[in-house]
Amino acid sequence: MERQSKCADVYICIDLKCFYASVECIARGLDPFETNLVVADPERSRTTICLAITPALKRIGVKNRCRVFEIPDEVPYIMAKPRMKRYMEVSAQIYAVYLRYVSPDDIHVYSIDECFIYATPYLRLYSLGAKEFARMLMDEVRAATGICATAGIGTNLFLAKVALDITAKHVPDNIGVLNERSFIETLWTHRPITDIWNIGPGIARRLAQHGVHDLKGVAELDRRILYKEFGANAEYLIDHAWGQEPCTIADIKNYVPKEHSTVNGQVLPCDYSAEDARLVMHEMIDASVLDLVRRGLLTDRISLFVGYANSTHPQSSRSDPSTCEHSEEPSHDGCSMTLDAPTDSSLFITAEFDRLFNKEVNTSRLIRRISMGFSEIDAESRQTVLFDESESRRKERSLQETAIAVKEKFGKNSLLKGMSLKEKATARERNNQIGGHHA
């Protein structure tokens, strides 16, 4: 039986169309709907991923987030080097446009080019319908920046997002609208199910094992199976199958996580040997631990992930290039460990990461991705550790605090360890980047 919505709240999800590519076109005085432009780093190989492409390229069949070599040779295009700092500036400018009409308490910034707005009180304030209000915001953004936006309108956050992702693409005004009834009538049997927000390939595969390929199938599947398969996360699937979402923007604003952690990762510029990857890992540890010290935090749990390249180390006696392409070896390895005590000692944490690396990483294989995670412990635990610190740890902390002060005043590259001057090191270049891309 269809569930009925208990309220008439209105949420709007606004997305900036082909944001990075549109910013680059506008900077050149070009129309993104008529210009073939990709945002990708020309200094990288043709296998690099395009961060964005213009609507003009999409219209002729080029896929978003494709690799450069996948663009047909006969298609002429402009390649724009990513400028993350500029994109952040434009995003902030657009957020300022929203603030002319909406309180920050009613805006949830979902990403650099997407946000949710709780619109209910503003429809009454401005005497506008939901589509009129969305159109007004979209027009104001276009007038201020030249960026074209699309929008989804729904009676909850989930429906607004789905209306944006699916419905808005098929209507002339680029504004999709959904409530629980229209969602069930139009999208209950939509496939692929991965088009639905928060349903990725992994969840889709697990649902397919039970013969479920759309949300109607989720709604009709025995809930005991869903809870056995997904645990507590089954509740989200069940709610979303019926077009429901109890979470509000107010809930998001008020949420305080019980635990905190940080993750630092990067895709390496080429295939690295295990020892070169270890060098990069050490650089990442150094930066992450300094960040812990700067914020007055400790860690008591660490994790390491490496993603292997599609080839083995050419100089390794364990490698067999003839079988590499068809190898059944895992494409990655990951592990974690709990430390004996909370710490922010770079020397100790580096030693523990080396233990993980030596134990888990297949050193005969080339590595292309590496990431690490740290739990974050608050200041109360820190006070206990400070009381019990050795003299050597106090000296290390003094050096850390000095390094932080120098970097904050003169820039991240003003003080580097010798390892960051080696050929395969990446810290110097990444210190000049935002989100792994040129600033």
TrEMBL record:
Residues 323-332 have a biased composition (Basic and acidic residues). GO terms for cellular component: cytosol. Residues 11-200 form the UmuC domain. Residues 311-337 are annotated as: Disordered. GO terms for biological process: DNA repair; error-prone translesion synthesis; SOS response. Poorly processive, error-prone DNA polymerase involved in untargeted mutagenesis. Copies undamaged DNA at stalled replication forks, which arise in vivo from mismatched or misaligned primer ends. These misaligned primers can be extended by PolIV. Exhibits no 3'-5' exonuclease (proofreading) activity. May be involved in translesional synthesis, in conjunction with the beta clamp from PolIII. Belongs to the DNA polymerase type-Y family. It comes from Slackia piriformis YIT 12062. This is UmuC domain-containing protein. Residues 311-322 have a biased composition (Polar residues). One of its GO terms (molecular function) is damaged DNA binding. PANTHER family: DNA REPAIR POLYMERASE UMUC / TRANSFERASE FAMILY MEMBER (PTHR11076), DNA REPAIR PROTEIN HOMOLOG YOBH (PTHR11076:SF35). Gene3D superfamilies: 3.30.70.270, 3.40.1170.60, 5' to 3' exonuclease, C-terminal subdomain (1.10.150.20).
